[in-house]
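For homework, think about our next protein:
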Amino acid sequence: MDQIKESFFLNRKSKEIYSLIIWSRKNIKTLNVQEVEQIILNNSPTVLFNYERDNLTMIPEVEVVSLWESNLKNHIAESYCSSPQDFEHGYCYVAELWKGKYGKKILTLHYLH
């Protein structure tokens, strides 16, 4: 049997993260690399990647720390004005913190290349 993969969407105009229900309406701020590391290592957020426009893919919480160590920590940009060419292999992520339901932190990592 095939697994159903849940898709998530980011609507910047209405400031909502949703699947079939709205997950968040509160974008808190853009984060620097130290803030992202602190959240990942201390708070176990739900991490969402924005690979294509506003389509988000959830990363299982059990994979977050290893993904941080292997791929993310050297590729966090300070803002959307950053150039991906300034990073190894020509890509980076802009991290944003969102306030989710029940106090859960949602970390979106927007892929720039």
User: Anything to note?
Assistant: The chain has one domain: 25-112. The longest helix spans residues 33-43. Residues 79 and 91 are 13 Å apart (CA to CA). The first strand starts at residue 8 and ends at 11.
